[in-house]
Design goal:
This protein is an alpha+beta fold and 350 residues long. It folds into 2 domains: 24-153; 201-349, Tumour Suppressor Smad4. The protein has helices at 24-48, 54-82, 86-90, 105-122, 124-135, 142-147, 230-235; strands at residues 93-97, 149-153, 201-206, 221-226, 240-246, 251-254, 258-261, 274-277, 290-295, 298-303, 310-313, 319-322, 327-329, 335-338, 341-349. The chain starts with 23 loop residues before the first helix and ends with a strand.
């Protein structure tokens, strides 16, 4: 049976296949709709209520206050849990996390709105942000960049990460390790020691930047460890050769430990790792962002406690956010997103 062709994220927006950036016109209408009720309530409080005396003025003021508070709370809840307020629902838009496609939650939405309010009060800051928002490939303003959120055309939300019964950083034979419960404390900065074998030998390795197209990528020369399983030497049976195709056109052979980031640094015991630098002008990729490796179960990735996280998207469109320090098995054709960049997992028999 033929293997389905892998679907890569959009090279301009970095969004998964089928996910479209929300049109600016629809976003403007949605924003106006969401501001109608607060504007009416504030108008009553500022212009009407102070001029009224007696019980009528008190009741009208109380009504305006309750209307404003209730609308803000309802809108907050809708965005935090359902990814869209009244205006975005009307215009068929959603506000989701860029790396996981899920509602951004209470705290991130509150921080986003507070940032937006501060810019609006400054006026000049709001004008500058609007100009940058129009020019940004995902139409992300500063509040969305700070919250790592993006406005997209309405679609089915990405599934919530399943709960994992196993401890972070461990997996059994052939077991796929998913993201843990949100209440579990991730192991930030967990160390990964590259596996060694009696047949391991070192050779100089260098990852070259593409000659044309894509951003300029610095390279690092390190000693890469190549492993030959004992069973292959004895039987001569073919084995899987894993590689990772970066969004800038490079293809990395994953034969030992590979560290990817703006300026990846090996931890103790990782001196033989292959270091791959990514030129990231938006600084969405951490210095040491992601580790790739292979074992008997296949290829796996480990997020190295990055700021923006790493997300694995399988061929069927399922996305799993990698908890820092946790081993996550990755299948052929999967897309691993790290910040504004991504890589595709490939496999061949050799």
């Amino acid at each position: 049976m033929d293997t389905p062709a892998p679907r890569s994220p959009n090279r301009v927006t970095g969004l998964p296949p089928g996910v479209e950036v929300g049109p600016l016109g629809a976003r403007l209408v949605a924003q106006v709709v969401d501001l109608v009720v607060p504007a009416v309530a504030l108008a009553l409080l500022i212009a009407v209520v102070p001029g009224l005396a007696g019980a009528g003025g008190v009741l009208l003021g109380l009504f305006a206050s309750l209307l404003l508070t209730g609308w803000l709370l309802v809108t907050w809840r809708m965005f935090a849990l359902q990814a869209a307020g009244p205006g975005m629902r009307l215009m068929r838009l959603q506000l989701v996390g860029f790396t996981d496609g899920r509602p951004i939650g209470w705290a991130r939405f509150l921080a986003r709105q507070a940032f937006l309010l501060a810019l609006a009060l400054s006026v000049v800051g709001l004008v500058i942000m609007v100009v940058m928002l129009v020019r940004h490939p995902r139409h992300q303003g500063w509040p969305d960049q700070a919250a790592n959120s993006v406005v997209i055309a309405q679609r089915a939300l990405a599934p919530a990460p399943p709960r994992s019964a196993s401890a972070p950083g461990q997996r059994g034979e052939g077991e796929r390790t998913e993201a843990p419960s949100p209440t579990a404390a991730p192991q930030v900065g967990a160390q990964f020691v590259a596996p060694q074998s009696p047949a391991a030998h070192a050779e100089a390795a260098q990852v070259d930047a593409p000659q044309s197209g894509g951003p300029r990528v610095e390279t690092a020369r390190v000693e890469a460890v190549h492993q030959q399983p004992p069973e292959q030497a004895a039987t001569g049976a073919p084995r899987a050769a894993w590689s990772a195709a970066l969004d800038d056109g490079r293809v990395l052979a994953v034969e030992g430990l590979v560290l990817i980031g703006r300026n990846p640094q090996p931890q103790p015991g990782e001196e033989d790792a292959l270091l791959v630098k990514i030129a990231d002008e938006t600084r969405t990729v951490s210095k040491s962002h992601l580790a790739l490796g292979v074992d008997d179960a296949g290829l796996f990735v480990i997020d190295r406690g990055s700021t923006n996280g790493s997300v694995v998207t399988t061929l069927d469109g399922t996305s799993v956010r990698c908890a820092p320090g946790q081993v996550v098995s990755v299948e052929e054709g999967a897309i691993v997103s790290l910040g504004d960049h991504w890589l595709e997992i490939r496999r061949s028999l050799s």
